[in-house]
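Figure 3 (text version): structure tokens given as input.
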């Protein structure tokens, strides 16, 4: 299709149906149509591999699949076959299934730095359980979150710290404090200021930049010296950094860690894992006060656990993590070259680890810009690239990457025109995309 020909009448009608019944028109804010250019928010019909089709019949190369969860590509045959086998055997029982033991054994073999694991359906339940456990073990009320990382949970202890804090008591939010990533001195100052009050440090072990040398080990030492629990949120880093997560790659073991997203390749499964001494407080084999750790009716659905085991098998046997890095490196190099060739190399900026790439859209003053992001996304969509990020899946091939780079080059040519005019408005064709976290709708 040409760059000005994309029209989504069926998707527009579907978006209206969604908004009429579902607050926000989606079940995850990051999937909302406010995140896309006006009238260009595709509603998906189906997906296979690295491609998705919208209800208007358009095919796209998809990045950031399932908000980073579908790292093997849609409908991966080994995963779907494992799921089908378990669905035929029943999905939920009044007592634990043997699949729960098999899945736990497989997970702990994949992440050998953990000694126990409990499964759930989403990341927020796992991180909140980790925080509750840390508070119970330490007897302390405060939670220290890394202020440079965007999201940890839908629950009050975290969401109260964001601009979308309506409905959350201030007393809850006041118990959450923030520390900066990469700054051990500032973190120690915070722990000293709230001496004996901080139950845990929770952070993503790595993000758009690599951990400074010695940083994670330094946090481990700080947590030990100040008597708090160290929690790694590995929702994104798990599997994409290494099969054993960032903790396996960097060689620093947290007390607790949480996994999700890539673990199920789109099926709903997450995990809280960690040291036996801490995790067992949520169990039955101890003499301390009990902790209501995780207790979810659907937390151990057999087919989701089967999906997780199949994902781990594919990662190990097919070298998926290495493939994600290779694909990401090819994509990043191509995008940077295309942007530079069009004179916008300082404005369309690719960041992050190769397996987890994002992009920034900067205005003529090199400041982050939602209007320029809108322009860029419009051109990508018109070229058949659905890319809220450049996070790759292993289902991409070289032709997909090459096509993406070609579309990026066309988008960058328009970007250059907007920069020269110091005004992207003529190329936005509507309101700008909006950030997820904002106080007003």
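Below: residues designed for each position.
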């Amino acid at each position: 299709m040409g760059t000005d020909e994309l029209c989504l009448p069926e998707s527009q009608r579907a978006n209206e149906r969604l908004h009429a019944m579902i607050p926000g028109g989606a079940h995850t804010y990051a999937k909302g149509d406010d995140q896309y250019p006006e009238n260009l928010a595709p509603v998906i019909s189906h997906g296979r591999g690295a491609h998705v089709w919208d209800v208007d019949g358009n095919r796209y190369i998809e990045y950031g699949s399932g908000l980073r969860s579908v790292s093997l590509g849609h409908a991966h045959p080994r995963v779907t076959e494992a799921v089908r086998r378990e669905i035929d055997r029943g999905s939920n029982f009044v007592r634990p299934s043997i699949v729960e033991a098999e899945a736990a054994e497989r997970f702990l073999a994949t992440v050998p730095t953990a000694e126990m694991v409990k499964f759930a359906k989403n990341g927020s339940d796992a991180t909140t359980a980790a925080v509750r456990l840390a508070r119970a073990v330490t007897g302390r009320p405060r939670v220290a979150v890394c202020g440079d990382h965007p999201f940890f949970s839908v629950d009050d202890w975290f969401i109260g710290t964001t601009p979308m804090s309506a409905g959350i008591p201030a007393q809850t939010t006041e118990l959450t404090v923030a520390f900066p990533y990469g700054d051990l001195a500032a973190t120690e100052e915070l722990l000293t200021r709230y001496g004996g009050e901080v139950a845990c440090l929770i952070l993503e072990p790595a993000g758009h930049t690599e951990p400074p040398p010695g940083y994670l080990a330094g946090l481990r030492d700080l947590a030990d010296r100040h008597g708090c629990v160290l929690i790694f949120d590995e929702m994104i880093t798990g599997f994409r950094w290494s099969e054993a997560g960032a903790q396996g790659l960097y060689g620093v073991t947290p007390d607790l860690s949480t996994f999700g997203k890539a673990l199920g390749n789109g099926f709903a499964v997450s995990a809280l894992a960690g040291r036996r001494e801490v995790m067992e407080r949520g169990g039955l084999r101890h003499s301390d006060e009990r902790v209501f750790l995780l207790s979810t009716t659907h937390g151990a659905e057999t087919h989701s656990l089967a999906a997780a085991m199949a994902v781990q098998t594919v990662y190990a046997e097919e070298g998926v993590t290495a493939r994600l890095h290779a694909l990401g490196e090819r994509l990043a190099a191509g995008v940077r070259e295309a942007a530079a060739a069009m004179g916008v190399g300082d404005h369309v900026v690719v960041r992050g680890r190769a397996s987890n790439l994002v992009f920034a859209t900067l205005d003529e003053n090199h400041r982050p810009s939602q209007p320029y992001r809108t322009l860029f996304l419009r051109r990508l969509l018109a070229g058949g690239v659905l890319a809220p990020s450049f996070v790759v899946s292993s289902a991409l091939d070289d032709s997909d990457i090459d096509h993406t780079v070609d579309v990026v080059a066309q988008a960058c040519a328009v970007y250059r025109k907007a920069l020269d005019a110091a005004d992207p408005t003529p190329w936005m064709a509507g309101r700008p995309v909006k950030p997820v976290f904002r106080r007003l709708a």
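The chain has a mean pLDDT of 96.
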